[in-house]
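Type IV pilus assembly protein PilN, Priestia flexa. Tokens?
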Amino acid sequence: MLVEINLLPQKERGNKLFVWGLVTIAALVLLVGSFIIWEYFSLVEKEQSATIAIQEVQADQAVKKAQLQKSNDGKEVEELVSAIEWAQSYPMKTVPIIKEFTAALPHRGFLKRFAYSAENETVEIQIQFDEQRQSSYYLSRLKNDVSIVKDAQVLTVEAEKSEKENEDKTIQSEESIIPRYVATYSVQIDRKAVGNLVKKEKEKEDQ
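Tokens:
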């Protein structure tokens, strides 16, 4: 007796499984590839957004720094003008003294306060500097280069920050937050030298 076995349907079923397997693998590869590409572009977009944000912050800090510098410079000019107007209201003999003191100032140093005592012939002055070492330099100039000074000494040296710096704590760069130094001096005046100086000033005015 002859028995025939037809295996064709089984081969067809096996081929279908193989095809479905390839399709599944291809779909997974496509899905994973799409996810990787999406993640890549997402990271690129985030990086670009972060770069833009950093640039905006830097630009904002630059603007605030410029405003701070402008504010400080304007304040210095106002204080200097006030000091000049105040000095002009004093008796004439104190004006040459103030001129001598201001002529000895270092760069960006300026007179904040002037108190003259005629009884003991002493002057107490407050000077603002950008650097602390300038206070010692100015003391040396008072003693050695200003002819009307008999003696001088430093009473105090204190660091101070501008009102704008105290209000804006977000600007932390070294250039924007720099303390100023205010030194107080006691200066003994040579009355005879002041008299000669006043005489010279009067002669210049008469010419």
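The domain at 66-206 is CATH 3.30.1360.100 (Gyrase A; domain 2).
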